[in-house]
User: Fold this.
Amino acid sequence: ARNFGVQTARGGQVRTDHLCRSRGGRRSAQEVTDTGPGIAPDEVSTLFDIFTQGKAGQTAFEGVGLGLPISQQLVNLMGGEITVNTVLNQGTTFQFSIQVSLTPAPQASSLPTQPVVGLAPDQPSFRLLIAEDEPISRKLLTKLLTSLGFEVRTANNGQEAIDLWKSWHPHLIWMDMHMPVMDGCEATRQIRGKQVEGRGNWVEGFGTSTDYPPPTTHHPLPKSPIIIALTASAFEADRERSLAAGCDDFVSKPFQRDQLLAKMSQHLGVRYQ
Assistant:
Protein backbone atom coordinates (compact mmCIF):
# COMPACT_ATOMS: atom_id res chain seq x y z
CA ALA A 1 0.00 0.00 0.00
CA ARG A 2 2.87 2.37 0.80
CA ASN A 3 4.44 1.70 -2.61
CA PHE A 4 1.09 2.41 -4.25
CA GLY A 5 0.92 5.73 -2.41
CA VAL A 6 4.49 6.68 -3.32
CA GLN A 7 3.84 5.87 -6.97
CA THR A 8 0.59 7.78 -7.24
CA ALA A 9 1.19 10.80 -4.95
CA ARG A 10 3.35 12.70 -7.53
CA GLY A 11 4.47 15.73 -5.61
CA GLY A 12 2.08 15.11 -2.75
CA GLN A 13 2.67 13.33 0.53
CA VAL A 14 2.60 9.78 1.92
CA ARG A 15 2.19 9.30 5.68
CA THR A 16 2.48 6.03 7.62
CA ASP A 17 0.99 5.91 11.13
CA HIS A 18 1.00 3.30 13.87
CA LEU A 19 -2.47 3.81 15.33
CA CYS A 20 -2.62 1.61 18.41
CA ARG A 21 -1.58 -1.57 20.11
CA SER A 22 -4.23 -3.32 22.16
CA ARG A 23 -3.72 -4.36 25.73
CA GLY A 24 -1.46 -7.39 26.03
CA GLY A 25 0.09 -6.73 22.61
CA ARG A 26 -2.48 -8.80 20.73
CA ARG A 27 -3.25 -6.45 17.82
CA SER A 28 -1.44 -3.62 16.09
CA ALA A 29 -3.12 -1.17 13.67
CA GLN A 30 -1.38 0.62 10.81
CA GLU A 31 -2.51 3.34 8.42
CA VAL A 32 -1.00 4.57 5.14
CA THR A 33 -2.36 7.83 3.69
CA ASP A 34 -1.40 9.58 0.46
CA THR A 35 -2.48 12.82 -1.22
CA GLY A 36 -2.48 11.32 -4.71
CA PRO A 37 -5.24 11.15 -7.34
CA GLY A 38 -7.43 8.77 -5.35
CA ILE A 39 -9.28 5.77 -6.76
CA ALA A 40 -12.46 5.83 -8.83
CA PRO A 41 -15.46 4.23 -7.04
CA ASP A 42 -15.91 1.62 -9.78
CA GLU A 43 -12.27 0.48 -9.33
CA VAL A 44 -12.34 -0.07 -5.56
CA SER A 45 -14.07 -3.47 -5.77
CA THR A 46 -11.26 -4.89 -7.96
CA LEU A 47 -8.39 -3.15 -6.20
CA PHE A 48 -7.06 -6.37 -4.62
CA ASP A 49 -7.56 -8.61 -7.67
CA ILE A 50 -4.40 -10.12 -9.14
CA PHE A 51 -3.02 -8.40 -12.27
CA THR A 52 -5.55 -5.58 -12.00
CA GLN A 53 -4.55 -1.89 -12.07
CA GLY A 54 -6.57 1.27 -11.83
CA LYS A 55 -6.32 4.06 -14.42
CA ALA A 56 -3.71 5.95 -12.38
CA GLY A 57 -1.41 2.94 -12.29
CA GLN A 58 -1.92 2.08 -15.97
CA THR A 59 -1.21 5.53 -17.36
CA ALA A 60 1.71 6.72 -15.27
CA PHE A 61 3.65 3.94 -13.57
CA GLU A 62 5.29 0.55 -13.91
CA GLY A 63 3.87 -2.56 -12.30
CA VAL A 64 1.77 -5.62 -13.06
CA GLY A 65 -0.96 -5.35 -10.43
CA LEU A 66 0.49 -7.68 -7.76
CA GLY A 67 1.54 -5.32 -4.97
CA LEU A 68 -1.84 -4.82 -3.30
CA PRO A 69 -3.03 -8.46 -3.72
CA ILE A 70 0.17 -9.75 -2.12
CA SER A 71 -0.11 -7.17 0.66
CA GLN A 72 -3.69 -8.27 1.32
CA GLN A 73 -2.62 -11.93 1.42
CA LEU A 74 0.15 -11.18 3.92
CA VAL A 75 -2.19 -9.19 6.15
CA ASN A 76 -4.79 -11.99 5.92
CA LEU A 77 -2.15 -14.50 7.05
CA MET A 78 -1.61 -12.35 10.14
CA GLY A 79 -5.30 -12.30 10.98
CA GLY A 80 -6.26 -8.96 9.47
CA GLU A 81 -7.69 -7.30 6.36
CA ILE A 82 -6.73 -4.15 4.47
CA THR A 83 -9.55 -1.62 4.13
CA VAL A 84 -9.63 1.39 1.78
CA ASN A 85 -11.06 4.88 2.14
CA THR A 86 -10.53 7.03 -0.95
CA VAL A 87 -11.69 10.33 -2.41
CA LEU A 88 -11.09 10.92 -6.11
CA ASN A 89 -8.52 13.69 -6.74
CA GLN A 90 -7.80 14.01 -3.02
CA GLY A 91 -6.08 10.85 -1.86
CA THR A 92 -6.40 7.37 -0.36
CA THR A 93 -6.05 5.79 3.07
CA PHE A 94 -5.24 2.10 3.55
CA GLN A 95 -5.74 0.71 7.04
CA PHE A 96 -5.28 -2.69 8.65
CA SER A 97 -4.87 -4.33 12.02
CA ILE A 98 -2.96 -7.58 12.62
CA GLN A 99 -2.41 -10.07 15.40
CA VAL A 100 0.89 -9.64 17.19
CA SER A 101 2.47 -11.41 20.13
CA LEU A 102 5.68 -11.30 22.09
CA THR A 103 7.96 -14.25 21.40
CA PRO A 104 10.96 -15.45 23.37
CA ALA A 105 14.46 -14.79 22.04
CA PRO A 106 15.39 -17.38 19.41
CA GLN A 107 17.64 -20.24 20.44
CA ALA A 108 20.91 -20.99 18.73
CA SER A 109 20.28 -22.08 15.14
CA SER A 110 21.63 -25.24 13.52
CA LEU A 111 21.95 -23.39 10.21
CA PRO A 112 25.32 -22.39 8.71
CA THR A 113 26.58 -18.92 9.60
CA GLN A 114 26.73 -18.12 5.86
CA PRO A 115 23.53 -17.80 3.76
CA VAL A 116 22.05 -21.19 2.82
CA VAL A 117 22.33 -21.90 -0.91
CA GLY A 118 21.32 -25.56 -1.02
CA LEU A 119 21.52 -29.00 0.56
CA ALA A 120 24.86 -30.37 1.70
CA PRO A 121 26.13 -33.41 -0.28
CA ASP A 122 25.87 -37.05 0.78
CA GLN A 123 22.28 -36.90 2.01
CA PRO A 124 19.15 -38.81 1.01
CA SER A 125 16.59 -37.21 -1.28
CA PHE A 126 14.03 -35.60 1.03
CA ARG A 127 10.39 -35.62 -0.09
CA LEU A 128 8.33 -32.68 1.19
CA LEU A 129 4.57 -32.25 0.81
CA ILE A 130 3.02 -28.77 1.02
CA ALA A 131 -0.67 -28.87 1.95
CA GLU A 132 -1.84 -25.28 1.45
CA ASP A 133 -4.98 -23.97 -0.25
CA GLU A 134 -3.81 -20.36 -0.72
CA PRO A 135 -2.14 -20.19 -4.20
CA ILE A 136 0.42 -17.46 -3.51
CA SER A 137 1.64 -19.03 -0.26
CA ARG A 138 1.80 -22.46 -1.91
CA LYS A 139 3.84 -21.19 -4.87
CA LEU A 140 6.25 -19.18 -2.71
CA LEU A 141 6.90 -22.13 -0.39
CA THR A 142 7.31 -24.50 -3.34
CA LYS A 143 9.81 -22.19 -5.03
CA LEU A 144 11.82 -21.81 -1.83
CA LEU A 145 12.08 -25.54 -1.15
CA THR A 146 12.70 -26.72 -4.72
CA SER A 147 15.41 -24.10 -5.20
CA LEU A 148 17.35 -25.71 -2.34
CA GLY A 149 17.12 -29.21 -3.82
CA PHE A 150 14.13 -30.78 -2.03
CA GLU A 151 11.59 -32.94 -3.85
CA VAL A 152 8.27 -31.17 -3.47
CA ARG A 153 4.64 -31.94 -4.21
CA THR A 154 1.58 -29.89 -3.29
CA ALA A 155 -1.98 -30.47 -2.11
CA ASN A 156 -4.85 -27.96 -2.14
CA ASN A 157 -6.73 -29.50 0.81
CA GLY A 158 -6.49 -32.13 3.52
CA GLN A 159 -7.99 -34.94 1.44
CA GLU A 160 -5.40 -34.42 -1.32
CA ALA A 161 -2.70 -34.43 1.36
CA ILE A 162 -3.89 -37.84 2.61
CA ASP A 163 -3.97 -39.24 -0.93
CA LEU A 164 -0.40 -38.04 -1.62
CA TRP A 165 0.80 -39.38 1.72
CA LYS A 166 -0.52 -42.81 0.72
CA SER A 167 0.99 -42.80 -2.78
CA TRP A 168 4.17 -40.73 -2.42
CA HIS A 169 5.24 -41.26 1.21
CA PRO A 170 6.67 -37.81 2.01
CA HIS A 171 9.21 -37.48 4.80
CA LEU A 172 7.66 -34.21 6.00
CA ILE A 173 4.34 -32.45 5.48
CA TRP A 174 3.90 -28.71 5.86
CA MET A 175 0.21 -28.81 6.84
CA ASP A 176 -1.95 -25.68 6.71
CA MET A 177 -4.56 -25.96 9.44
CA HIS A 178 -7.34 -24.09 7.59
CA MET A 179 -8.25 -25.60 4.21
CA PRO A 180 -11.46 -26.43 2.31
CA VAL A 181 -12.85 -29.97 1.85
CA MET A 182 -10.83 -31.20 4.86
CA ASP A 183 -8.79 -29.04 7.22
CA GLY A 184 -5.26 -29.77 8.36
CA CYS A 185 -6.22 -31.02 11.81
CA GLU A 186 -8.58 -33.67 10.44
CA ALA A 187 -6.08 -34.72 7.76
CA THR A 188 -3.40 -35.13 10.43
CA ARG A 189 -5.74 -37.18 12.64
CA GLN A 190 -6.55 -39.52 9.76
CA ILE A 191 -2.89 -39.98 8.80
CA ARG A 192 -1.90 -40.78 12.37
CA GLY A 193 -4.90 -43.07 12.77
CA LYS A 194 -4.05 -45.01 9.62
CA GLN A 195 -0.45 -45.38 10.81
CA VAL A 196 -1.63 -46.95 14.06
CA GLU A 197 -4.00 -49.27 12.18
CA GLY A 198 -1.28 -50.25 9.72
CA ARG A 199 2.39 -50.45 10.54
CA GLY A 200 2.60 -48.30 13.67
CA ASN A 201 3.81 -44.81 14.37
CA TRP A 202 7.51 -45.44 13.79
CA VAL A 203 9.09 -46.45 10.52
CA GLU A 204 11.28 -49.53 10.81
CA GLY A 205 14.56 -50.29 9.08
CA PHE A 206 16.11 -46.83 8.99
CA GLY A 207 19.52 -48.30 9.84
CA THR A 208 19.76 -49.70 6.29
CA SER A 209 17.21 -47.52 4.48
CA THR A 210 18.29 -45.11 1.75
CA ASP A 211 15.39 -42.82 2.67
CA TYR A 212 17.14 -41.43 5.76
CA PRO A 213 20.67 -41.35 7.15
CA PRO A 214 21.34 -43.76 10.06
CA PRO A 215 19.98 -42.45 13.39
CA THR A 216 22.35 -40.54 15.66
CA THR A 217 22.25 -39.21 19.20
CA HIS A 218 21.05 -35.84 17.95
CA HIS A 219 18.70 -37.23 15.30
CA PRO A 220 17.06 -40.50 16.41
CA LEU A 221 14.66 -42.50 14.26
CA PRO A 222 12.22 -39.98 12.73
CA LYS A 223 8.49 -40.44 12.68
CA SER A 224 7.13 -40.80 9.16
CA PRO A 225 5.87 -38.43 8.11
CA ILE A 226 6.87 -35.47 10.26
CA ILE A 227 3.87 -33.11 10.17
CA ILE A 228 4.40 -29.42 10.94
CA ALA A 229 1.31 -27.23 11.32
CA LEU A 230 1.11 -23.92 9.47
CA THR A 231 -1.38 -21.37 10.71
CA ALA A 232 -1.97 -17.63 10.75
CA SER A 233 -2.97 -17.84 14.40
CA ALA A 234 -0.37 -17.21 17.11
CA PHE A 235 -2.63 -18.26 19.98
CA GLU A 236 -1.57 -21.08 22.29
CA ALA A 237 -4.96 -22.82 21.98
CA ASP A 238 -4.45 -23.29 18.23
CA ARG A 239 -0.96 -24.64 18.80
CA GLU A 240 -2.28 -27.15 21.33
CA ARG A 241 -5.10 -28.17 18.98
CA SER A 242 -2.68 -28.95 16.14
CA LEU A 243 -0.31 -30.89 18.41
CA ALA A 244 -3.24 -32.85 19.87
CA ALA A 245 -4.26 -33.83 16.32
CA GLY A 246 -0.84 -35.42 15.81
CA CYS A 247 1.38 -32.64 14.44
CA ASP A 248 5.01 -32.76 15.52
CA ASP A 249 5.55 -29.02 15.52
CA PHE A 250 3.90 -25.69 14.83
CA VAL A 251 4.92 -22.61 12.78
CA SER A 252 2.94 -19.37 12.74
CA LYS A 253 2.47 -17.37 9.54
CA PRO A 254 4.08 -15.27 8.26
CA PHE A 255 7.15 -17.45 8.73
CA GLN A 256 10.80 -16.74 8.07
CA ARG A 257 12.90 -18.76 5.61
CA ASP A 258 15.49 -19.65 8.25
CA GLN A 259 12.73 -20.80 10.60
CA LEU A 260 11.52 -23.36 8.05
CA LEU A 261 15.05 -24.56 7.34
CA ALA A 262 15.79 -24.93 11.04
CA LYS A 263 12.64 -27.02 11.56
CA MET A 264 13.66 -29.42 8.80
CA SER A 265 17.13 -29.68 10.27
CA GLN A 266 15.65 -30.37 13.70
CA HIS A 267 13.17 -33.03 12.62
CA LEU A 268 14.86 -34.69 9.62
CA GLY A 269 18.54 -34.03 10.26
CA VAL A 270 18.82 -32.03 7.03
CA ARG A 271 22.22 -30.38 6.51
CA TYR A 272 22.75 -27.25 4.41
CA GLN A 273 25.59 -25.52 2.66
Notes: The longest helix spans residues 135-148. The first strand starts at residue 14 and ends at 21. The two ends are 36 Å apart (CA to CA).
